[in-house]
Amino acid sequence: MTRYLLRRLASTIVLLFVMAAFVYVTFYALPSDPAVLVCGKGCGGGQLAAIDHKLGLDQPEYVQFWHFLEGIVAGRDYSSGPDVSHCAAPCLGFSFQNDQPVLSLIGQRLPVSLSLTAGAMVLWLLIGVSAGVLAALRAGRFTDRAVTAASMLAYGSPIFVSGMLLLMLFCGYLHWLDFPVYVPFTEDPAAWAKNLLLPWFTLAIAQAAIYARLTRSGMLETLSEDHIRTLRAYGLRERRVVGKHALRGTLTPVITITAYDFGYILVGAMLTETLFGLPGLGQLIVQSSNNVDLPVVAGLTLVAGAAIVVANTAADLLYAVVDRRVVLA
Q1: Chain-wide mean pLDDT for the chain?
Q2: pLDDT for position 324
Q3: Which terminal Cβ of the chain has fewer Cβ within 10 Å, N or C?
Q4: By three-state DSSP, how is residue 229 classified?
Q5: Where's it found, cell-wise (predicted)?
Q6: Are the beta carbons of 312 and 240 closer than 8 angstroms?
Q7: Partners of 76 in the beta sheet?
Q8: Alpha-carbon separation of residue 289 from 78, 283, 295 (angstroms)
Q9: DSSP-derived secondary structure for 73-118
Q10: DSSP secondary-structure letter at 94?
Q11: Higher pLDDT, 45 or 283
């Protein structure tokens, strides 16, 4: 187990390095002069040269890449004549628009996106896995057809449509909820959950449909395997066969997909955040892309990639807990 953990840690570090190199080439090496993006088209040659020197753009590419990695690991200094700005590790640079540290901008938005993603993930796992198991156990019957039809309808509904319907129903018609406003969990946990209820369900509806279909197919395949038939032949109760043995084998692909979805939705829930006015990372990446704020977009890309890599490592470790047939070799 220790050797496996060390190998996973080493492969995670290599993946993060490759991802950092990809982000650097994509956002800093390929675009046109970043100094023009910082200063604007009206800047003269002297101002552009000063910005090039401050950002280190007047140095060879390999030196720039080294400073980029150095900033992430150990921090970095930006010098502009006598003025020196220190960016603490992990340094993702400064925003072109407001000159604030990118990490600070991400840190301000991260609690909102984490709240949205974690709550929605709990809902789509509960609804999707439960519906998938129920459909598999009632395969070919009315319940199976009803779950299949509901899944197709939910998956085919765009987020802005399902979100608008929920807003009109619960805020406009029934008046059960006010229009959502983000309240930090540390200030009022009850208000935090109440205001995130509609965004959670909006984000979870389409995802739950995918997990229901995935769980149904996995459960049907597992129930047809020899060891399940053997357990039934020994007279084990159906609840124990399904809950303890069949479900474990079914959850392995669900864990894998959940790891990918968590990292992707953490930064990519821009439609939900925009619809409900939540100041999260998705809203930040839309604003930064519109303003061609390369350091912020690059920093968000790194955060999303790192979240996916870390979540996949955690998923690999969970395999052995969920399914004992998985051997960590």
Answers
A1: 84
A2: 60
A3: C
A4: helix
A5: Cell membrane
A6: no
A7: 87
A8: 24, 10, 10
A9: HH-EEEEETTEEEEE-SS---B-TTT--BHHHHHHHHHHHHHHHHH
A10: B
A11: 283
What is the predicted pLDDT for the residue at 168?
Answer: 92
**What is the rounded CA–CA span in Å between residue 129 and residue 123?**
10
**Phi, then psi, of 104 in degrees rounded to 5:** -65, -40
Sign for the CA dihedral angle at 60, 65, 68, 72 comes to negative
Pull the structure tokens for residue 286. 């839309």
Which one, of 206, 208, 200, lies nearest residue 177 by Cα? 200
Q: From 126, 116, 129, 255, select the one nearest 198 (Cα to Cα).
A: 116
145, two tokens: 């057809």
Q: Which amino acid, one-letter code, is at 110? A: L
Model confidence over 195-233: pLDDT tens digits? Answer: 999 999 999 998 899 999 999 999 998 888 888 888 888
Q: How far apart are CA 185 and CA 266, in angstroms?
A: 17
- Tokens 């006598």 belong to which residue? 82
What is the homologous superfamily of the domain 103-327 according to CATH? MetI-like (1.10.3720.10)
2, two tokens: 């220790």
> Does residue 114 have a pLDDT over 80?
yes
Quote the pTM value. Answer: 0.81
Strands (E), the chain: 76-80, 83-87
- List, for residues 153-168, the tens digit of each pLDDT value: 988 888 888 999 999 9
d(CA 139, CA 148): 10
- Report residue 281 as tokens: 């990372």
DSSP secondary-structure letter at 78? E
The model's confidence at residue 82, banded by pLDDT at 50, 70 and 90, is low
Contact status, residue 120 vs residue 264, Cβ threshold 8 Å: no
Task: Say whether 192 sits in a helix, a strand or coil.
Answer: helix
Going from N- to C-terminal start, the domains of the chain cover 31-91, 103-327
Question: Which tokens sit at 45?
Answer: 């040659």
